[in-house]
Design a protein that fits this description.
The protein contains 12 helices and 2 strands, in the order H-H-E-H-H-H-H-H-E-H-H-H-H-H. It has helices at residues 8-34, 36-40, 87-100, 102-105, 138-147, 162-174, 185-197, 208-218, 232-237, 241-249, 258-267, 283-294; strands at 72-74, 200-202. The chain starts with 7 loop residues before the first helix and ends with a helix.
Length: 296
């Protein structure tokens, strides 16, 4: 019908105009879908984290340099708040796991963390029921966190308070869909009584850099052994007077026990300030050297 009122050229111009309008509407719809939602949140303040990180603010470019914290005395824990998982405890545990465990055990607890690739034995795969040294019940995992595992990369987590350790226990258990079996009622009762009966003391903490500065300031190097030019025994036995003096400072009772002196010096050769030849000394030579060192 429209062909009766419009010439072919006018119809072509009309269709071109309609196409331009349709394209403009499509572009505006795409803009509204992709861009507008993001602009709504530009000035919105960031929501606070639901769980506070257990670590303090680190020093600039030094992740080990935490601010000092004063000694704390934590009250006893109500066992009902930690013996079974709850949303708050699990949220806390996930933060702790991400910051303390995921580098070795992996973000999903499969033992595939980047830092664990070079460890022997490999980090535990929490999703499997095999290979657990202490077991996978609540009291077993808590023991592992408290004591660590000797002969492995699993260290003690005693630097975390007991509530945080229990939060980690529940997160570790949650990675395994297998049947963890019944808990030991006596062990659980003993653990609950520990939480309820007494609090715990969190000692003072200072930044690592500050501790290093204090140690350096307190360090008093041993006075070097004087020139041995006038003593042929010292001249033959001492290669570095300063280093030899530091070695002597680390040997308890060497003035009274020539055997202790001989053992400690021989183990540290070479590089402890003494000449390698002392390793061949007879007992009487060690006594003579001991006497010369004591009288220097």
């Amino acid at each position: 019908m429209i062909e009766q009122y419009l010439s072919p050229s006018e119809l072509k111009r009309l269709l071109s105009a309609l196409l331009v309008v349709a394209l403009f509407i499509a572009l505006m719809a795409l803009f509204g879908f992709l861009v507008v939602p993001g602009t709504r949140n530009v000035n919105r303040p960031h929501a606070a984290s639901a769980v506070e990180s257990p670590q303090g603010e680190t020093g600039w470019l030094d992740p080990t340099d935490y601010p000092p914290t004063a000694r704390q005395v934590l009250p006893p824990i109500d066992p009902r708040t930690v013996m079974t998982p709850n949303p708050a405890l699990m949220a806390r545990g996930k933060v702790l796991f991400a910051e303390n465990c995921a580098t070795c055990h992996g973000p999903e607890g499969r033992g595939d963390g980047a830092a664990g690739a070079s460890l022997n034995p490999k980090p535990r795969n929490f999703t499997q029921p095999t290979g657990w040294v202490n077991g996978y019940r609540i009291e077993d995992i808590y023991k592992t966190l408290r004591e660590g595992v000797k002969g492995s990369g699993m260290v003690s987590f005693n630097y975390l308070n007991r509530k945080d350790r229990m939060a980690l226990v529940h997160v570790v258990q949650s990675f395994g869909a297998f049947n963890h079996g019944p808990e030991d009622p006596k062990a659980l009762d003993a653990l609950a009584k520990t939480f309820a009966s007494s609090g715990e003391v969190i000692p003072d903490k200072i930044p690592v850099a500050f501790a290093e500065q204090q140690l350096a300031a307190e360090f008093q190097p041993a006075p070097p052994i004087p020139s041995a030019a006038s003593n042929p025994i010292l001249a033959a036995a001492i290669a570095d007077p300063v280093l030899a003096a530091q070695t002597l400072a680390g040997i308890p009772r060497w003035q009274e026990d020539d055997k202790a002196l001989a053992t400690a010096v021989s183990i540290g050769l070479p590089g402890n300030g003494f000449s390698p030849e002392v390793a061949t000394y007879a007992p009487d030579q060690w006594k003579a050297l001991q006497s010369a060192l004591a009288g220097h």
